[in-house]
Amino acid sequence: MTTAQAQRADRFDEWLQGINRVCGRFGAKCLGSEFSGSIREHKAGAIKLSFVDVSQARLFRTPKEVAQTDGKHFYLAFQLSGRAGMEQAGNRIEMSPGDITLIDSTLPSDFVYQENSRQLSLILPRHVVEQGLRFSGVRCAQRIPASAPVAVMANRLILESTRQDSLSLPESEATLDALVSLLRPALCSAEAEQDAHERLFRKTLRFIDEHICSEELCPEAIAREVGVSVRGLYRMFSRKGLVVAQYIKNRRLDFCAESLRHAAGEQKLSALGYAWGFTDSSYFSTAFKARFGVSPSEYRKQYSQG
């Protein structure tokens, strides 16, 4: 191996290590002698993104790399310059400057970067996407063209957010929610919206939200209300990769978090948990920290200081 080849191999390995550190486990191949690559992180509150500059490289995630990655989130990829090929779940698109697409970190994927490609890769927590789209079916590896008005606005919003050094946690969370809401028409599966099973699923979600505070909310009561068997209810949620009891718990936690963000006083945390259906204060605190990364008291403190 010549000195030039060795230096290129070192640069490639350094770039891939940066990708794996920031974006999760990927495999990669160098596609030419003109390879170049760099990655720069940006964090502000709930916003976690990276600028990926690369020429002549392929990134891929097989089931092996998926199993080695802890995060179960989505990536919202903004093509800033150059071109890239993105493939997932049988869908393959060619990305040009200004285009946007959504990638699921839990599924295999394959990306090919041509000359001087620059992407902004934004991590979207799974619950943000799921709540924003209301489980209506997510379209991954679908190109949202640069000419679409929502793409123009989304590009401006995310780029402007990277220039705001003092963005608070509530403001950054609102930015993520706004992006998902803005892109909802392009990210939702139109076929799923018309499906009878989807309508039944949305009816089920509405019933859960309306009775989320009730201690009696359980799979049997939900199945009886929406007119399916308990087994059918489990299958309905399983098709979405969900478990009924876990979904109920997470919705209660989400409502608790919303209450903490907008609470004017110092309500006892045990009382807050009880109000949203948690009868065990210790379990509530443990479950809250597992979902949001901090305890309820720390979460409230973040917002009271924001």
TrEMBL record:
GO terms for molecular function: DNA-binding transcription factor activity; sequence-specific DNA binding. PROSITE patterns: HTH_ARAC_FAMILY_2. SUPFAM superfamilies: Homeodomain-like. The keyword Transcription applies. It comes from the Bacteria. InterPro entries: AraC-bd_2 (IPR035418), AraC_XylS_family_regulators (IPR050204), Homeodomain-like_sf (IPR009057), HTH_AraC (IPR018060), Tscrpt_reg_AraC-type_HTH (IPR020449). This is Transcriptional activator feaR. It comes from Metapseudomonas furukawaii (Pseudomonas furukawaii).
